[in-house]
Amino acid sequence: GAGVSQSPSNKVTEKGKDVELRCDPISGHTALYWYRQSLGQGLEFLIYFQGNSAPDKSGLPSDRFSAERTGGSVSTLTIQRTQQEDSAVYLCASSWRQTNTDTQYFGPGTRLTVL
Amino acid sequence: GDSVTQMEGPVTLSEEAFLTINCTYTATGYPSLFWYVQYPGEGLQLLLKATKADDKGSNKGFEATYRKETTSFHLEKGSVQVSDSAVYFCALSDLYNNNDMRFGAGTRLTVKP
């Protein structure tokens, strides 16, 4: 497909379990971003990748959150020992380059519910 | 740090009414400014952008002008339609802050026929 895709679209898990969220960026986009959108809140920046490296991980909410990107393409966001406050929509975006002028293209998101 | 403040919603208008959604920003450097829109059941998509002071972004009848003197990027449309009902997010990306995108809280617009 031409756009950013994310899987799963919905994930329901029990507190304490680990979850893995996947993002497939637009082919050729070198930059990839993860955001979190909590109910009634704006978008919270989590992490970005330029190629396979993530220069700034300070946006990750806790050490339970980690992300990786392989082959300059697919990225996974892993949340270990999930908590109820992790419930949110997790959005992925990609852009040609990691600059302040490039448009970010967003995926449809993964809605995570932690029971 | 960089931040975006936008008009709280929800906003409810009648069809053909004039729309303004206010957005102001704080940035270290010289950011690019964006408006993204999220239609019901859909993902975020870019509506318009401006990359330097006094630039005007426009798309689908919406406009916003990058005002450095007032640090603002207000979104306007002269005549809204029911199909414009969505959540609108103002955002900035700052070269001096790793180009991280910072979003406002979003403003929900409902247009009634």
What's the end-to-end separation of chain A, in Å? Answer: 33 Å
Listing every helix as H and every strand as E from the N terminus to the C terminus, the arrangement of chain A reads: EEEEEEEEEE
Measured distance between first and last alpha carbons of chain B: 41 Å
Taking pLDDT < 50 over at least 5 consecutive residues as the criterion, the unreliable ranges of chain A are none
Tell me the number of helical segments of chain B per DSSP (H or I, 4 or more residues long). Answer: 0
**Multimeric organization:** heterodimer
Total beta strands of chain B? 12
Largest interface: A-B, 24 and 25 residues
Largest sheet properties of chain B: 6 strands, mixed
Average pLDDT taken over every residue of chain A:
91
What share of the residues of chain A does DSSP label as strand, in percent? over 45%
The main pleated sheet of chain A reads as: 6 strands, mixed
Order of helices and strands of chain B: EEEEEEEEEEEE
The helix count of chain A comes to 0
Q: Strands, helices and their partners?
A:
The complex is a heterodimer of chains A (115) and B (113).
Chain A: E1 5-7, E2 10-13, E3 19-24, E4 31-37, E5 43-50, E6 65-69, E7 75-79, E8 88-95, E9 105-106, E10 110-114
Chain B: E1 3-6, E2 11-14, E3 19-21, E4 23-26, E5 32-38, E6 44-50, E7 56-59, E8 62-65, E9 75-77, E10 86-93, E11 101-103, E12 107-112
Parallel strand pairs in B: 2-12
Antiparallel strand pairs in B: 1-4, 3-9, 5-6, 5-10, 7-8, 8-9, 10-11, 10-12
